[in-house]
Amino acid sequence: PLARGLAVRSWHGGTPLPGMHAWVEGQGHGECVTKATHDIPGTQLIEVGGQLVRLVTASGKCFAPTDFAGALGHLEKLARKRSTHEAARLKEDELASSSLVVGNCEVCEVKVASEDLEAQRKRFAERHAEMIESEERVLVSQASHVGEVVQRGRANAWVRPLYPGLIPESVRVQLRAMNDDFRAKSSEAEGKTKPFCGVDADVVYVRIADVKPGLVMKRGVRVKFKLYTDLKGVGGCEVVAAT
């Protein structure tokens, strides 16, 4: 019988895969079930509906615990797309800080272009729709969540969910992974450790294009929003004032 901690050997060459181990658990009347784990960065083993699955935290996609090739291939695909869409998102955020969102911008003084504003709004909406598609946005559900704005940028904001326990577990895992990544980048840039966005809690990214026109996203404002996931992590859309 397999012993706890026994290395599982691959089919190729008989060498153990890094971080892979097997163990057995008794299940009544001496029956045993063999499980295998493989520590793949960017994934977690969780139970969904009583079954063990491997969750890719960046996308929320699940694989069988031993489907290492599938999980690794998916991670490589995400990495390639992330590098492409990082530049695209930065460009989109710059465009969002134009006169198209002047009604929402209390941070900077925006110059209104001379051309027709309605035509600008239409082009901006088209670009925003293209970004949503390219980032593979998926709405989590029709449920609305309540949060508080903790930081505002030129074309985005960060919102702290007031009731994080209402967020599905798989989405919370993605949210934590996204925040951990931003915390690490923030610490490296500033040369010191301090809470990301000034809070210890995980926060949701909101693009101003997803905010109802006229709603000023300043610190302390409470809002309602729906959650989505995409290649970058977790965001909020259909953002309106909380009543």
TrEMBL record:
Superkingdom of the source species: Eukaryota
Q: What is this protein called?
A: Uncharacterized protein
Q: What is the source species? A: Noctiluca scintillans
Q: What lineage, starting at the top, does this entry show?
A: Eukaryota, Sar, Alveolata, Dinophyceae, Noctilucales
